Amino acid sequence: MQAVAAAIGAGRTGIRLSPMTTFGNTAPRDSHPQALYNHVVEQLAPLGLAYVHIIEGETGGAREPADASEPFDYAALRRPFPGAWMVNNGYTRADALDAIASGRSRPDRVRRSFISNPTSCAGCGRACR
User: How does pLDDT run along the chain (129 residues), one tens digit per residue?
Assistant: First the structure.
């Protein structure tokens, strides 16, 4: 990420992380995903990236995978990163409200259906207040 940020500018660089995803059972889940991804985010924090995008749980699947050894603390993962932080995985309005209340995200960074429609983003923010 340092090389990419240096080459094209940190403000034009973002990263998507999926701490609990096994990529359709094609890759094993890390034995200590919380420690691993906390370290990754701590290393990304000083780079000044445009954003970090987090997929909660299995991509397109359960937010709390049944075979996970322990729950993943997404709010703790977010703490060291000062910039834009997006979370998702098939969010409903209730999921968005929970993500905001728990500190996992901000009102303008939660839902897939709003990504392509900035006008809706503002509406979600009002609904989430």
Answer: 999 999 999 999 999 998 888 776 667 778 889 999 999 999 999 999 999 999 888 777 767 777 777 888 988 999 999 988 888 887 777 877 888 888 777 665 554 554 554 444 454 555 444
Tell me the whole-structure pTM to 2 decimals: 0.75
Sign of CA dihedral 109, 113, 119, 124: negative
Among 115, 65, 120, smallest CA distance to 86 is for 115
CA 72 to CA 84: how far, in whole Å? Answer: 20
Whole-angstrom distance, CA of residue 41 vs CA of residue 1: 11
Residue whose pair of structure tokens reads 């834009």 in the numeric block:
84
Per the document, the length of the chain is 129
Q: Rounded to an integer, what distance in angstroms lies between the CA atom of residue 122 and that of residue 108?
A: 7
Cα–Cα distance for residue pair 104/24, rounded to 1 Å: 25
Residue type, 50: A
> Degrees (nearest 5) of the Cα angle 74, 13, 82?
45
